[in-house]
Batch of 2 targets.
Target 1
Amino acid sequence: MLIKKNSFYDYAYRRFRRNKLAVIGTFITLAFVLVALVAPVLAPYEPSEFFFIEGQNVYNKYASPSMEHLLGTDSLGRDVFSRLLYGARVTMLVALSAVIISTVIGTIIGLVSGYFGKFLDAFFMRIVDIVISFPVLFLLISISTIMDPSIWIVILAIGLVSWTSTARLVRGEVLRVKELDYIVAANACGSSSLKIIVKHILPNILAPIMVQVTIGTAQAILMEASLSFLGVGVQQPTPSWGNMLMDAQKLLVLRDMPWIWIPPGMVTLLLVLAIYFVGDGLRDAFDPKQ
Amino acid sequence: MVKYISKRLLVSIPVIIGITILSFIIMKLSPGDPLANFINPSINMEDLEKSRQALGLNDPLHIQYVKWIGQVIRGNFGYTYSGNHSIGNLILERLPNTVILTLSAFILSFVVGIPLGVIGAVRKNTRIDYGITLMSLVGVAIPSFFFGLLVIYVFALLLGIFPSGGMENIRAGFTGFAYYMDILHHLVLPALVLSLGNIASVSRFTRSNMLDILKEDYIRTAKAKGLRNKAIIYRHALRNALIPVVTIFGLSIPFLFSGAYITESIFNWPGMGQLGIRAIQDREYGIIMALNLITATLVLAGNLVSDILYAIVDPRIRH
């Protein structure tokens, strides 16, 4: 086991395991990760493979679910089920990469602001104020229209927009920890600022950062889905759960072809919900008051 | 109090300047020539260059920024490249519709969210509490556009109780009272969709505040005095539990404006969000800059107001 017995994380793990919703959430999330990893094995077809009506040179558009196509086909005659499975990969890739970017930026800025204070703090916190003033979707749409939309731009945009909450959180934690005796002692011993930040402060504020990473992943999934739904996110033919729902803006599809838009919406809901369960579980597990 | 307010106002000044610079930079970085629509074989390159000069597109960036700000301060957001419409007027036409939608969603989220939170706290760990908690988690987790589509599917297409989009039934030509009822009828679904996430966060926040307060000594004292449960909950606990909810006022504003983009485009609601989406397609930088600036300023003002409200209701904050 990686975790030392009777350590803070050991107790947190035990508390986490007792939380039913958190455990269910963990299993669902892991199941999604697994599906994303083995999508090529599970998927009956290629995600961008077109199907034709037998004997005719016409795309098999909007076919209803059958044994051949478990969830039917979409507006271009592609297998919805296969696209759903491959969509899981895109969603995970975008969400995880974006969260890595936002966590790295947010943590560094939060540490610097909180530890050094004064001018640096005032400067960075005003930047946070500025970025936070723009509604997230506004900024995201602006960024992804500036650059040609691609998966990497979507990742970058989400990462660049969502670091602010991590920065505020980390700053607050640093301010709390900074005044504690062991930091004062480390300072008195003449440790360098870098050493104090990396070796003494960071490990002690890791728990709230982990909670933030979890919640941030869920939010990144929602952001990617919204962007792709609006047509400024992940572009066709790459499948994403968000852009699979685009077609449902037509009333005809919405009314008569629920197999096209209900599955991608439901899996997004399920995955985000599961990750929120994990996040809530982590927060409670790390809270010594519980 | 005056000192606190003026300090908050002073801090807002660099932020608002930063907001203008950021929105200017973002849109100047956009690719695509605003005159691209006019380029055709019959056009003279010299004429094109002249209109470029006339529109100020050849000036250095900081000059363009200063010119733009000068116009903005006078309330003039410039003109659209195509058709030469006043951007200020275009937005003014749309603003009331967005305000109607966001304001209804705002009211709905507190009117529904606070009672749900109170019920959850008072009936802690019962089925009702679990049900409300699960519902609010789903409310936060569901993609708003998916919820919007579901709502249209069920209430407009299957049941046919509400219209699937738009703001009024133009063909019916209602007047007077019937006209307002018609708008209200169109408003129900979009307001519900826009407020869902906010209802969820308000109810979760109220619940946890309420639970903290119910543990306080003065609640025990009230119980010991033999007060009825209702009096304790509503007169003693709820009042204090609602104080921090004021902070959500400010936080809801950016949330609702972001949501308005999606909600308006799903429901064909003729507001600023819909205008923004069209502006992006048409590469109308002026409109995008103006929308960015207006919403960011509204958000800043909202945060300021909620900070000040919080300081008024809870004197501890001021110090």
Target 2
Amino acid sequence: MRAARTAYPLKWRIMDALEGIAAAIWPARFRRATPYLMLLPAVLLVGLLVLGLIQIADASLRTLDTTTFQFSDDYSIANFRRALTEPLFLVVAQRSLVAALIVTAVTLVFAFPYAYLMVRTRSPRLRKFLLIALFLPFFIGQVVRAYGWLIILGNQGMVNEALGLIGVAPMRLIYNYPAVLFGLVQYMLPFAVLMLAPALTAIPEELEAAAGSLGANWVRTFIHVVLPLARPGFIGAGVVVLTLSLTDFAVPAILGGGSQDFIANAIYDQFFRTSDQGLGATLALMLVALGSILVGLVFALFGAGTLAMGRSRA
Amino acid sequence: MKRFKPTLSHLSRRTFLQATAALGGASALGLRSSYAQEPEKPAEIIVRAWGGSWVDSLKAGVSDSFTKMTGIAVRHDLTEDNEIQPKVWAAVAQNRVPPIHINWDTTTNATKSALRGVTEDLSDLPNLANVTDLAKPAGLEGFPIVNTYGYVYVLAYRPAAFPDGPPKSWKDLLDPKFKGRLAFYNDGIGFHFPAQVAGGGKLEDIPGNMQPAWDFITKMKTQQPLLGEDPDFTTWFQNGEIDAACTISTNAREARKNGVKIEWVVPEEGAKFDTDGLWIPKGLPENELYWAKQYINHALTKEAQQVWLDGLGLPGVVPGLTPPKDLVGDPSYPTTEADFQRLIRISSKIQVENESEWFSKFKAIMQG
Amino acid sequence: MQEPFRAGASREAEGGREIAVTVRNVGMDFDGIHAVKNASFDLPKGRFLTILGPSGSGKTTLLRMIAGFQTPSSGEIFINGEAVSAVPPHKRSIGMVFQRLALFPHMTAAENVAFPLKMRRRDARTIPERVERYLALVRLGGYGGRRIHELSGGQQQRVAIARALVFEPDLLLLDEPLAALDRKLREEMQLEFRRIQRELGVTTINVTHDQREALVVSDDIVVMDQGEIQQKARPIHTYRQPRNAFVANFIGVTNFIAGTVRSVSEGGDVSILRGALTLAGKIGDPVNPPAEGGKASGAIRAEQIRLAGDAAQLSKLDCVLAGTVIDTIFEGERMVYEVACAAIGDEVIRVFDHDPAAHKQFDIGESVFLGWNARDMLVFR
């Protein structure tokens, strides 16, 4: 008897009981509906998002009357006209777009060697260190990190103090466009590394050895073998970094010194500073459109990368 | 608007006791008898407030004594003012009971709500008989809002950066040595009107012709100023990032309390004066509306104002308040007619109707 | 008959043929573990050498050192007489076919084959013709435009071979490329390797754990175990004259009977005692012969044992034992009998019958007699 009991451990008994309960709640004949049941929460969330978008679209067509602070009952495209003609919004949109492109390019360049080393190193200790260094910023959060840069790069910050030691007068290192780009790159790096790493892991190390034995030095191996095969990772990482940068709020707000607004900051202003939800909704829709067009363009030009639907072919 | 929080260190136990004692007397003599037929008391009323010492001052000066007097608990909702606004608007539009009883708000923001018609009229508060003109929202019918104190957007500066004496004019900030060393609010609030004067324009032309203001702000843009919100100014002064700023005196005073050498002036062109106030959203049950009004009425007593505004370091709306020691005769704490002569006050109605445009205009210049 | 084992390398050996690869006293340590110990051999030009051993024997490490992916901890490797320890892989003239082929999935078959030519900056105008020629060599003419994933496993093998050979390397290395194939395809590709190697005459080193493959394809076999070279010999010698018990056991099916050495003669005859039984055999390893009175074991191949129901039928054989059939395994081309012999403590002897149709069949439990010739039993200490 005792032998039988050890042969059928407690864990299995608990699983049996749970399966029994599950079968009572959700009988086997419902099984064909199970995948749909699993899908339900996601569908609900997406549905809510769509509802929100519809509301935003509705709001974007109504104009604010500042004598009553009520929105018009009838629809007009006045908000869209304002958004497309007022120089402020064009400046802000252009700044966001250019920043997103620069940040994406720079982040990918920096993320690649990091991801490559993390995936390929033979030292488990180095890999662990790189992983921790990568994840630590995630726990710290974007806003705190941005304030950290204020402390480090400020007039009386560590960098300026160090410069002072070699006789350089304090410099304004923050509250400008490069500071925003710097903050964004630093923020995006872990995302890019995490998107690149699986793509690099999927490249058999043997391929690089093969390229070497076939006469390619490491530069040519990188260009002809690693880079083309890592493309799905680059596309996935690029799309994530591009959209996150384009829509970022906190970094331009904190590191920009107020004069480096991105589209998201302009939207916040409309919603919460001037109470013009109509114009805010318009800008939000245009941001969604801009982001979608960019992502669509990337997918059209380079394919969907690691974000591809369906099974990849060997 | 994000608020920096002055400390309550100067709010001594003695002044507090004085205030509550006086209140007790006042309620015993007047209030209780005048409201013999009181409606049913709610268990609590909810007041939206700014956090930290702002809410501490309000609690010490108004809420605690109100609870003592009426037995009604006061809960402080610390949702940001600009974020509660859409919620209240939505509740009124849908005929729901609003999420708060009283909103402590900037007069400009409150006026938007008044124009939208979501505020209760407060004209029948008994204590309005004793207040100065400041309590009345300019350009609005009746009392949809009651202003409770004023504040000044001063020119705050580091004396070390002005060896030849304090700046006399906003134009002094155009000196090239201040390039990158100035700060304004990121929507330019507080600076539009003095800029109109400094640019050679007239205040009467607001809002019709503000070109002088935009010209002056365009010149100021070449100085590459920092743009921020209330807490930023204190931080920037403390970290030595800026030499001068157009900001509410409270922020400069906060940096001074933290040991930074900061002075402030009202330049010859003047400085913008504005107010904060209290208001009640529409849609409350009758009895709750009654007690919310009693709360605001109580906030207008001299005793409540004295304790509350000592905490904030700002001038109140009842006569005879004693200014904090460090602010006696200070331009940011106007008390006399002469003091007010030097300040610029534009009606809230004009402000809210044009604010959006001014903000965009300022942003377009600064972001360009 | 057997080649003398040489530790040193000479420029001229094997009837004057030039030496392509010399491995001299090469060792490799990983964290204090000796993956390869003091390995030495010469490989003349144009020959096909197989390094055969179980997993963990150090055969792949040795190959990777020759390819240049690892640097020996000690010793030196010479290719065409030049020491190559300091030469990176891409500067060695070595074509390699990898275990998992390592074909570039983002390129077509032709692009894969063209890759080494491009990397070696060969004249671009000659590349297409050359690629086509090598695809034809591996019987893939016309398949150049296919993507790698559109090719069958065997076709992929052929692309990998063409890619490794197209730039006419001095040396071809095969790192167990056939291990993952099914048996039929594997045997087909083994012959294909041999054909191509003979056609081009390229010096080749192949690594495998498959003794059959080693016997089929190689001119020479190096058997490795636990980082050490056990034997280097031609396939037939490796099979017939294994140098030690490991080689005898690893290649083919061999029965071992342990005993005590009773006598050793000048001519190489040995007899060992096992209980009441005396077994006659030959010295297996002349370098390390068994000593009288010492322990030794006799090794006899399963196919060299005859089986009969009657001892009289085995009268011509030197050694006859009685036993009982305990299992019969039909493998198609042969029948395998497992026979327990009382004389050696019921130890099991395996016997092959390669022509079951012509011989009497035995059932489990039947009493049988086994017999073999003394010259077929090799005695190792």
